[in-house]
Design brief:
Elements: E1 4-8, H1 15-26, E2 29-32, H2 33-43, H3 46-57, H4 63-77, E3 82-85, H5 91-103, E4 110-115, H6 118-126, E5 128-131, E6 137-139, E7 158-159, H7 166-180, H8 183-189, E8 193-197, H9 202-215
Parallel strand pairs: 1-3, 1-4, 2-3, 4-8
Antiparallel strand pairs: 5-6, 5-7
This protein binds adenosine monophosphate.
Adenosine monophosphate binds near residues 37, 59 and 93.
């Protein structure tokens, strides 16, 4: 049975980190709309240029751009299962995802909701540093690189994302509460919502997530 997951949670809840680990373990395609947008910006594509201003403010990028990325990824990109990390982020996207999956004759297994308090989110995100090349994540207090400012994996420079500055983090949280959190009700009504306590360690969250997936 194909495992198709949606990860929902505030920014900084660890969705991306967990999605990478779980995708590797269960051989799923990891589809992060945030990473795709950052790639589009780096490549200088028209959608990247349009998206950048929204991202720098911490606002949602227009649905038309996001839906095209997801449509391409799911139509061309995957035959096995998938994890959608950071998508959907509002009800329009959730409804459009349902339509796309119906067209592709695929179904969602679960929507996983990552629970973490707002204060913890602010501490995690404002201290986060990201490799400018391979996107590996670090933290100034909890997860330091071996050499200050340098990625352990590829030796490139670590940077603070523009949208991890405190004022933008607060806006991203406000956007999350207004637009994305209502999706909890959307997936609860469909009977596919699972909760994960995302305030514990990376290892504990990953173990909880694995058992949720294995229990089915
Ligand atoms: P993330 O890396 O998932 O935190 O996403 C970074 C930024 O990309 C967000 O703050 C949004 O500006 C944009 N973004 C990512 N995914 C979406 C989405 N599904 N809908 C709208 N904007 C998105």
């Amino acid at each position: 049975m194909e495992v198709n997951l949606v990860f929902i949670g505030p920014p900084g809840s660890g969705k991306g980190t967990q999605a990478k680990m779980i995708a590797k373990k269960f051989r799923l395609m990891h589809c992060s709309t945030g990473d795709m947008l950052r790639d589009a910006i780096r490549n200088g594509s028209p959608s990247g240029i349009e998206a950048k201003a929204y991202m720098d403010r911490g606002d949602l990028v227009p649905d038309s751009i996001i839906l095209k990325l997801i449509n391409d990824a799911l139509t061309i990109g995957s035959s096995g299962g998938f994890i959608l990390d950071g998508f959907p982020r509002n009800e329009t996207q959730a409804v459009e995802l349902d339509k796309l999956l119906q067209k592709l004759k695929r179904t969602l297994s679960f929507a996983v909701y990552f629970l973490v308090p707002d204060d913890e989110v602010v501490a995690r995100l404002t201290g986060r540093r990201v490799c400018c090349k391979c996107y590996a994540n670090y933290h100034v207090s909890y997860s330091k690189p071996r050499k200050d400012g340098i990625c352990d994996h590829c030796g490139s420079e670590l940077i603070q994302r523009e949208d991890d500055k405190e004022v933008t983090v607060r806006n991203r949280l406000a956007v999350y509460h207004k637009a994305t959190k209502p999706l909890i009700g959307y997936y609860k009504d469909k009977g596919i919502l699972k909760y994960i306590d995302a305030s514990s360690s990376i290892g504990d969250v990953s173990r909880d997530l694995e058992s949720v997936i294995k229990r089915g």
